[in-house]
Amino acid sequence: MWRWLRPVSGRWAQRALRGRRAEQLAVDYLAAHGYAIVERNVRVPVGEIDVVAREGQTLCFIEVRSTSSEQWGGPLASITDRKRQHLIRAAQWYLRYSSVRATETRFDVVAISWRDPEPPTIEVVKGAFTADGARDA
C-alpha cells in the first residue's frame, strides 16, 4: 500500500548517491573558487534550484549536472529547453519571495563527469543561459 515510501535500492539508489556526491563536490569547488554559497537544494512551488551562490555582487542560480557516460552528450547536453524554463521560473519565484536581493543575476551550470577510477572532472559554465531562455554558452 505505501510502496512509494520504501527505500530506493539498486541502480536508482546509486544514481541518487552519485547526485548527492556531485552536489557536494560542486559546492566545495565553487566555494574554493570564490563563490559564497547562499543556499542549497532550494525548493520553491515551481521547482528546485540546486545551489544559490554569490560571485562578487552577482547572485548565481546554479544547476549541477553529472554523468558517468558521454553516450548522450555528457552533463551539459542534459540541460534541455524545458529544464532551462523550470530553472528560470524557480529563480524568478525565489527573487520575488525570498529575502535575498540582487541587482545582477546569472545562471551557471556545474558539469561533473565521473570517469572511474579517475577523479571526476568539473567544468563551470558561467552564464550558461539567460532568463529569456537563450543559450549563452
Keyphrases for this structure?
single chain, alpha+beta, Trna Endonuclease, Chain: A, domain 1, 2 helices, 28% helix
Overview of the structural elements:
By secondary structure, the protein is an alpha+beta fold. It has a single domain, classed as Trna Endonuclease, Chain: A, domain 1. The protein is built from 2 helices and 5 strands. A hairpin with a 2-residue loop joins strand 1 and strand 2. The N and C termini lie far apart (47 Å). The model has no long low-confidence stretch (mean pLDDT 84).
* Multimeric organization: single chain
- Low-confidence sequence ranges: none
Total helical elements = 2
Major sheet description: 5 strands, mixed
CATH topology: Trna Endonuclease, Chain: A, domain 1
Arithmetic mean of pLDDT: 84
Name the helicity range.
25-40%
Topology:
Elements: H1 11-32, E1 36-44, E2 47-55, E3 58-67, H2 81-97, E4 104-115, E5 118-129
Parallel strand pairs: 3-4
Antiparallel strand pairs: 1-2, 2-3, 4-5
